[in-house]
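To: structure subgroup
Subject: Chain for Friday's discussion

All,

I'm putting the inputs and outputs inline so they're searchable in the archive.
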Amino acid sequence: KVTGVQTWALPISLRCDESRPAGCGQVRRPADARHIGQPVQMTARDAARMEAALLAVADAGIDIRHALFDRFLNAFPQRRAAFLNLDAASRRMTDETLQAMFGLAQGEGWVWPQIAELVVTHRNYGTLTAAEYDAFVDMAVDALAVAAGAAWDADCDAAWRRQAAALKAMIHRALAEWQAALPEVRRRAAG
């Protein structure tokens, strides 16, 4: 028996907006979705269903970025000029979007800092609206669904849509935090 050591366990229902016990060091919460104010959307079933869809698309040799970017740039043609190298950007953006949703399903702690950084660095390409981010995430799931074919069922769709909703909420939070933190963003938003 070890004496003088305090032991404790985090409750299973820890919400992302709850603080950790004092003096207990850093607590790595699933998805590290600080301040989102909702329970983390992590489930093993979602991750398994999502992985099966990704594997089906990979096995079929389908690159969804072409359909995704055709659709996105048709919806937001003013964004085309921001891409100096569309081939490289489309690969990276597609991968990052899918990885973030899959990471959320797995409860990965890197997702929040990655999304917060992506949102702030994207301001270099002009003011992107929440609607543009939302559309891109939804279009990524739609393109994946088409490419997955028979591997995409209602449960798979629900898993991807849950994680897409969590990602969009995280993006909205990052947009709000950066707007509050950066004076130039506040000035642009004010008009």
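Points worth raising on Friday:
The CA atoms of residues 133 and 168 lie 7 Å apart.
The radius of gyration is 19 Å.

D.
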